[in-house]
Amino acid sequence: MIKTKMDRRALLGGMGAVGFSAAAPALAKPVLPQTRFKVIEASAGGRLGVAILDLAFGATIGTRLNERFALCSTFKLPLAAAVLEAADKGQLSLDEIIPYTKADLVFHAPVTGPNLAKGALTIRALAEAAQLTSDNVAANLLIKRLGGPQAVTAIWRRWGDPATRIDRYEPEMNLVKAGDVQDTTTPEAIAMMVAKLCTEDVLKPASREMLIDWMIRTQTGLKRLRAGFPKQWRAGDKTGTMNGVKGVGNKVNDVAIVWPPRRAPVIVAAFYESPYDGEDTRDQDQAILAQVGRIAADWIA
User: Fold this and answer.
1) N or C: which end of the chain has fewer CB within 10 A?
2) Number of domains comprising the chain
3) Would you say residue 11 lies in a domain?
4) pTM of the prediction?
5) Would you name the residues annotated as active-site residues?
6) pLDDT, tens digit, for every residue of 23-48?
């Protein structure tokens, strides 16, 4: 378990998160991250959920911490981890070949599409494709190999996550309307799960390092949280995106781990529901998450 130790900064963050505003008169009040997040949300419109989990103190601060947001492709990070855990336990081999056909193809298949002529890929290649490129076909094949959406959700429950769930396959799982529970998470829940995957013993050391390496090599989020972290900080992430459903705001999500120099890592989970429902992912929506990254970096620096 993550132990909770709080210094003055973490204590102030926790006080702000639960509604306390008073501090000792002799102490200057910092502008709490959650206050800054609310300002961003009010300015941009839409809905913003953020969790910053500082593993140096076991303290989580943010906004809309326990409200549900669409996972979109952020689920592919704990999906890849579930595959690695199954390999660690001897339940499957990463070298196992998974066949697929044209009938399995869905939107966004940057790895499985070009390899269709081969008719199969290894589980290792599929897990890497799901994490690095967000390949939807790879994710669907892995979900099926693990027993389906409910079986994957059960794995996450076993890890201690009380909220994160998948109920459908790609791409249908991205259509999450206000009030839906299926295919959702909360910022705090997924931040806690990523912390366990990257820093505890859910995975064997070699598998944990493989997962972290995949996260670091992922390039889909360079305009999101990682754009707000100092360039010298080591970081990895997994994004999620949904565009182009009229009447349903676009989703721009990112879950990251960052290693500031000479201190424990920090997990940042950010979910932004834009008021815009067009076909494209707007840079200004991704910039919301870059601002979140900068605020997190300022807070922990």
Assistant:
1) N
2) 1
3) no
4) 0.91
5) 73
6) 334 455 578 999 999 999 999 999 99
